[in-house]
Specification:
- By secondary structure, the chain is an all-alpha fold.
- It has one domain.
- The termini are far apart.
């Protein structure tokens, strides 16, 4: 029984420390968040396009080789 109480106290202490640490975090403003989201979206589109181009080129190359 004492192990369970010690475990509960450990979990409660952990959650209190998590909350304390989250209060220290410098959260982005709404404008920063929108800007960062746009940058990530643009990067995803660019990487997807690059992968599509490479995939298409390799598919054509293998069709030529295998013939």
């Amino acid at each position: 029984m004492s192990d369970q109480q010690g475990e509960k106290k450990g979990i409660i202490q952990f959650l209190k420390e998590v909350r304390t640490e989250l209060n220290k975090v410098s959260w982005p403003t709404k404008n920063e968040l929108v800007s960062y989201t746009g940058v990530v979206g643009l990067a995803v589109v660019i990487v997807c396009a690059l992968i599509w181009v490479c995939d298409t080129a390799f598919a054509k190359l293998f069709r030529i080789i295998l013939g």
